[in-house]
Design brief:
globular
């Protein structure tokens, strides 16, 4: 894209700047539209599983319901508690929303189709996803209220317990693929098992890692059954209790952008990204980004399915799962994967 703007007479610096801005808008704007529609899909899935109809009034089939809800919160008054730290209180949702968008810079939608094709893309994702909890912690502290503060404490403990396991799971994927570049990790999954399947998930050593990664993704995004930071029976609305208007909406947008990000990571790391499920020539006639979007939607359906059907964990169950089950298991598989590779690939 830089070369195209240079052909229009721009200098290299300006061409690079304009092409980068266009690339950001090309990802951010469709992502915001996708978040609005995915909230609608989420509510429809919950309704279907509870034998209800869901949104069906605003627009054809209720498709405009998310936009009506967005307009409603936009027109509401922003209320800041008198005892709150106003600056931190208002910047916390901005941080959550911004960090959720930043991670998409290295996600490959097709072969080479990403904003930044960097060699340490997976490390970038791990670092950015770790920053999201700061928005929750800042909101809990700045609200100067007990329930949001308890929610922030829970969020920090929850993030640490699952981030460690996610790190070891990613180590297993990196060892097998031999790179941190997300584009190359997808390419390493082509014809992975007997030259038939595209995806690490079909590998017996990496399949348990995918199951753990999927469950950790639910905990990372604070979705049910791990939505203990927003447990209404205990903490009212958790860290969001004191928020209203667009500050509240920013948290919702950030949460769903994170959900889509985790769906994209499950697709990219274990299910072959933009590659078709089978390494069969006719399937490659379908554009890669179509396969990518279909897989992301499948994982989003799984996220919604779990939220609609699985009851919330107790907090001690959550900690036990993270520290006593996932951490030792992921460490064991790092040893198994590295040992297997030393015996076969590097011997």
């Amino acid at each position: 894209m830089t070369a195209f703007f240079q052909s229009l007479g721009m200098t290299y610096d300006w061409a690079w700047f304009v092409s980068t801005v266009c690339g950001i808008l090309l990802i951010a704007l469709p992502l915001m539209l996708a978040v609005a529609m995915i909230i609608y899909v989420d509510r429809k899935i919950w309704a279907a599983m509870a034998l209800r109809r869901g949104p069906n009034v605003v627009g054809p089939f209720g498709l405009l319901q998310s936009f009506a809800d967005g307009l409603k919160v936009f027109l509401q008054e922003t209320i800041v508690p008198s005892a709150a730290n106003k600056g931190i209180f208002l910047i916390a949702p901005v941080i959550t929303f911004t960090v959720a968008l930043m991670a998409w810079a290295v996600i490959p939608f097709n072969s080479g189709a990403m904003l930044a094709n960097i060699n340490v893309g997976l490390l970038y994702i791990l670092a950015i996803s770790s920053l999201g909890v700061y928005g929750t912690i800042m909101a809990g502290w700045a609200s100067n209220s007990k329930y949001p503060f308890f929610s922030a404490m829970r969020a920090s403990a929850q993030m640490i317990s699952y981030e460690v396991s996610i790190g070891f799971i990613i180590v297993c994927v990196v060892l097998w693929a031999g790179t941190f570049n997300l584009n190359d990790i997808v390419k390493a999954q082509q014809g992975h098992v007997f030259g038939i399947f595209n995806g690490f998930v079909f590998n017996p050593l990496l399949f348990p890692m995918w199951v753990m990664f999927l469950i950790s993704s639910l905990a990372e995004t604070q979705r049910a059954p791990f939505d203990l930071t927003e447990a209404e029976s205990e903490l009212v609305a958790g860290y969001q209790t004191e928020y209203s208007s667009m500050a509240f909406a920013a948290y919702w947008l950030g949460e769903y952008a994170n959900v889509l990000l985790m769906c994209a990571l499950n697709t990219t790391l274990f299910f072959g990204g933009w590659l078709p499920p089978l390494d069969w020539a006719p399937l490659y006639l379908v554009p890669g980004f179509i396969w990518f979007l279909l897989k992301v939607f499948f994982f989003f359906f799984v996220f919604s399915w779990v939220k609609a059907t699985v009851p919330r964990y107790r907090y001690d169950q959550l900690m036990r799962l993270g520290w006593k089950i996932f951490l030792p298991t992921s460490l064991l598989f790092v040893v198994l994967v590295s040992g297997y590779l030393m015996l076969t690939r590097y011997s």
